[in-house]
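Repro:
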Amino acid sequence: MDCQTNRGDEQLKSAVRADLERLLSLVKRDVEQRVRAREALKRLVQAWDRGDQDYLSRFLAGSTSRPLLETYRDAEVSLERLRLALARGADLAQEELEKQLANYCSAKGLRLEGRSGSFQVDTLLDVTLNLKKRAAKVGIQPLQSLDWSKIEAALDSERERLWGRPSDAAAIRDRLVAAYETVAALHPNPTRWVRLTDVYQEMKRRAEKEVPGWKKTRLRLNAYYRDEFCVDLSRLWSAQIAGPLDGQQIEFSAIRDPRLSFQIPLPDGTAASVGFMRPRQT
């Protein structure tokens, strides 16, 4: 009988010990979770105080808020209010960015078209402002920020990429004719018209051979971008309007398929939509 009693006492002591260890583990886990929630909340408050919209958006969209929500149910109400404040702030930020873009274009005499975060500067330079992702894209430059100073710097460098290249209209005409002759030989046509998209692809292939180091240039994915081709066509068009160039003149024509069309900025600020070309017969 005493042996059974002693055995029962030992089992009870063992069970109590196991229960206490389990409670200790639960309390330890709870304390650790509350510490994580406190640290997450401290970083959130600091981000709010310094107006860090990027961090606040990432906090709400990611897993960073999980410790706070798992520990304090009331936190959901506060975070929902934060979402509302960010949404209202995003509308104001969108308006401010668009105003800054409009002022930039006005100060430099640039044509600005578009709305709702998608714009074209001087017909060719695409500018996208994505408030949801807190990101922008200017031409070929992706920006993981909506900081206006970075957007402005990208606008300046992209305009330099497009319009800062050599502008010899006769040299542009000669490269265009050389590519035209290659394409025309592959696709004979009694009207002598060839598609500009085929000419562009031929000129891009030639540029890749003529400038073998183009891949080392930061951000470049090919040697001759479509918008650079459009700028060259614009320069040639403007030169031909100003006065006949020595040698062949180039004429252009529209194309029905808008996917094959090229937008060419004209001297009067408008743009021509073209898709065919041929040397003018003399």
